[in-house]
Amino acid sequence: MQIRKGNSTLGDVEENLAGIKQTVAEACSRAGRREDEVHIIAVTKYVSMETAERAIEAGISHLGENRIEGALDKWEKLQDKASFHFIGQLQSKKAKKIIGKYEYIHSLDRMSLAEELEKRLEDGNKVKCFVQVNVSGEASKAGLDAAEVIPFIQRLEGFSAIEVVGLMTMAPYEEEPEKTRGLFRELRELRDRVRALGQPNAPCEELSMGMSNDYAIAIEEGATYIRLGTSLVGNETNA
Ligand SMILES: *Cc1c(COP(=O)(O)O)cnc(C)c1O
């Protein structure tokens, strides 16, 4: 894995991506899944515009950002070249800045945010949302408790602008990623229960889980979107 100070080169990103695709392929084969079920989101929060562009040149078509500031710059410049995913905590009053721009929000975790999205989206426009779940129950992690997820999604039934496409979680960092397996499995089981509700605006087919350290395990447990920062585009904040 290439992690250098300064902007990553196209060669760095291509090399990283080739290694990641190999790992994805191996995890899929262990789990009897198809590789095209797994979408790679390049998380560009720690890197420059240039490096985000390198990721697109290397073949990435999904970009993820977690702060409004970086999120807007990158969207302005690269909107035609990738789908945009907002993956960070989203304050309701700031949500309007990305509404209509970001196709996906991975951090829907409360009714006030849902109401804000519903109010601001007009003309039949929709936003694809992942409901964020704090499966580990760590106090420091965002998201709904697992037990709150189904009642929350049921309350969204009449929200015409919100499409619950899936569930998202962040596992705690573990030296041994194998330890995260149980959390990913719980999220998958919860996803299956939401899907079984058959609620029209909550098809809930996707699982956004797995980061640089644990994506192989997440894929074995059913991830359909993995969110990769450091291992794919590096971290330029110490440059
Ligand atoms: C930063 C971030 C990632 C990527 O983290 P890496 O460990 O660098 O791959 C993924 N998901 C979320 C929500 C993040 O904030």
Automatic annotation (TrEMBL):
Its cofactor is pyridoxal 5'-phosphate. The lineage of its organism: Bacteria, Bacillati, Bacillota, Bacilli, Bacillales. The keyword Iron does not apply. Gene3D superfamilies: Alanine racemase. PROSITE patterns: UPF0001. This is Pyridoxal phosphate homeostasis protein. Keywords: Pyridoxal phosphate. Pyridoxal 5'-phosphate (PLP)-binding protein, which is involved in PLP homeostasis. The modification N6-(pyridoxal phosphate)lysine is found at K45. Belongs to the pyridoxal phosphate-binding protein YggS/PROSC family. The keyword Thylakoid does not apply. InterPro entries: Ala_racemase_N, PLP-binding_barrel, PyrdxlP_homeostasis. One of its GO terms (molecular function) is pyridoxal phosphate binding. Residues 20-235 form the Alanine racemase N-terminal domain. It comes from Sinobaca qinghaiensis.
